[in-house]
């Protein structure tokens, strides 16, 4: 990242940048909902890949280091592509809920969609509504020609359980009971420990980077 006027969070070494991408990828892969967009990380990773490829072109052919660096580039490209595909799958699967969440977010609250994803989501939503209308709804009785996609499409299951690794110690995390006769209780999450816990309990910690889904 550029330290002149840029966010301090983006002043990362190449290794730190790739770790940030991998963390975002794993969190997105294992979280049941669409997470906050990371366009700055994506942009920096693409720039880093371009820089690495430019260096390879200047290297001597046949050098073992060239093969190793080429494999590293392919690995990073795979993680980046997998991350973006995972987000697109969630956008398509939970489309009306994603757009509703984006619409209702408070001013200053981070967006869950990048500008490109938002444009894709709006176009996908419009095409879906047009398809439903032309293929099915116009042939239905007048009282059945309206359908709410928000009510028809299942929401992300925030009650599912996820595995996580604690990156920063957390105290007094409120855990909801599994059965009616049980009471709420709090737990401390020690740095480096691993847990299986309900996603919505630790969703804010995923967003803050205090825990890593695995």
UniProtKB/TrEMBL annotation:
Superkingdom classification of source: Eukaryota
Gene Ontology terms describing biological process: DNA-templated DNA replication; double-strand break repair via break-induced replication
Annotated Pfam families: Sld5 (PF05916), SLD5_C (PF16922)
Subcellular location: Chromosome; Nucleus
Methyltransferase as UniProt keyword: no
Entry's Gene Ontology cellular component terms: GINS complex
Keyword annotations from UniProtKB, A to Z: Chromosome, DNA replication, Nucleus
DNA replication complex GINS protein SLD5 C-terminal domain sequence ranges: 156-214
Residue ranges occupied by any GINS subunit domain in the UniProt entry: 63-135
CDD domains, alphabetized: GINS_A_Sld5, GINS_B_Sld5
UniProt record similarity statement: Belongs to the GINS4/SLD5 family.
UniProt-recorded name of the protein: DNA replication complex GINS protein SLD5
Species, as recorded: Chunga burmeisteri (Black-legged seriema)
Gene for this chain: Gins4
């Amino acid at each position: 990242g550029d330290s002149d006027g840029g966010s301090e969070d983006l002043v990362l070494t190449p290794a730190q940048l790739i770790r940030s991408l991998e963390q975002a990828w794993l969190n997105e892969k294992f979280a049941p909902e669409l997470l906050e967009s990371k366009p700055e990380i994506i942009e920096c990773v693409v720039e880093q890949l371009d820089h690495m490829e430019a260096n390879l072109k200047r290297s001597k052919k046949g050098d073992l280091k060239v093969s190793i660096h080429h494999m590293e580039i392919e690995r990073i490209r795979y993680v980046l592509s997998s991350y973006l595909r995972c987000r697109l799958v969630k956008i398509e699967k939970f489309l009306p809920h994603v757009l509703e969440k984006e619409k209702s977010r408070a001013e200053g609250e981070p967006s869950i969609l990048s500008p490109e994803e938002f444009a894709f989501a709006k176009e996908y939503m419009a095409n879906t509504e047009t398809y439903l209308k032309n293929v099915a709804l116009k042939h239905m009785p007048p009282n059945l020609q309206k359908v709410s996609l928000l009510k028809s499409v299942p929401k992300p299951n925030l009650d599912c359980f996820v595995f996580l690794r604690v990156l920063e110690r957390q105290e007094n995390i409120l855990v909801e009971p599994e059965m009616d006769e049980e009471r709420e209780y709090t737990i401390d999450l020690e740095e480096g420990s691993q847990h299986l816990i309900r996603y919505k309990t630790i969703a804010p910690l995923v967003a803050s980077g205090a825990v890593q889904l695995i």
